[in-house]
Amino acid sequence: MSAAGGARLYFEDVTVGDEAVTPALTVTGAHVALYTGLAGDEPGDPDRVPDFLPLALATGLGWRLPRPPLAVQAFLALEWEILKPLRVGDTIRAASRATARRATREGGIVIEEQRILDQHGEVVQQGRFTFLVARRPPEDAP
Amino acid sequence: MAHRVNRARRRTDGTRGGADRQTAGRGVGRLRAPSATRRARGRRPPGAWYPGARMTAPRRRYFEEIEVGEEYESPGRTVTETDIVLFAGLSGDYNVLHTDAEFMKRSVFGERIAHGLLGLAIQSGLFTRATTPYATLAFVGLRWKFRAPIRIGDTIRLRARVVAKRETSKPDRGLVTIARQVLNQRDEVVQEGETDVLVERRP
Hints:
The complex is a heterodimer. By secondary structure, chain A is an alpha+beta fold. Helices cover about 15% and strands about 35% of the residues of chain A. Chain A is built from two helices and six strands. In chain A, a hairpin with a 5-residue loop joins strand 5 and strand 6 (about 125-135). The longest helix of chain A is centred in the first third of the chain and has 11 residues, at about 30-40. Chain A starts with 18 loop residues before the first strand and ends in an 8-residue tail after the last strand. By secondary structure, chain B is α+β, with helices and mostly antiparallel strands. In chain B, strands 1, 2, 3, 4, 5 and 6 form a six-stranded antiparallel beta sheet that branches.
């Protein structure tokens, strides 16, 4: 059972304050075309990166950190600001850290602040994710 | 929407159905008036792919034309397994919630569910199909709640309402706040929140 779904970071493993920075990813015209088709957005300037695409790419970048993924049971809320537009060819990375954790009956609430940086180190988007995270199942105890 | 309202009103006025159909027919005809088509054939509008294509820039609504209280409802869109697979591939988010059918059989959901951000992406596309596009300069903010899962095969639609308009320090733009609800085929709210967009003022 513990192997199912792979190794994961449970609520007990979350530490408030540690910042993790992901590897970088260059946003290409292919990303924009795929995203525009999938979202059903109006095709516009093909060099302009759609607003929510960096957010989607940042969640994937989080999976490339050298640590198991958070055992997210539900994505509860998102507050997000878009500070600067991105163009095709820009390279992004994401920096995130847990800022609060609170135990609940089902598991725990984790609030994570995230910033998306461009190749110049400028913050282009930022905000706060609220996740419901599973507790470590008894058979998975260290 | 306006058509439907007009037709309903005429019917209560006692006009016969036949007359309604005629009116509706004329309304549709007006959308592609012959003169407009002929004009388009004569000179290729910017962005047209072939002579006769009506590819003039779509009308966009300026800040002044948007009113607080306006409501829109989009067409529905069925979220498929393909959407989820593509979104996992594009984003790189391979969370078991979205990609491991066997693991999810034993979860509270019983099956794979869509990424929350996929629902967010789809509603932004549905918004463009719900109303005449705004003369948007920038999307600036989002306050969003994910209320319930979107399952494979669910059909979602967007209900949106303009809740606030605010002038900004720059005279060429204004801030429009839209409250949005993403509903499934059972009219349950699966996602909801507010978005802020900067919209051009009429030049």
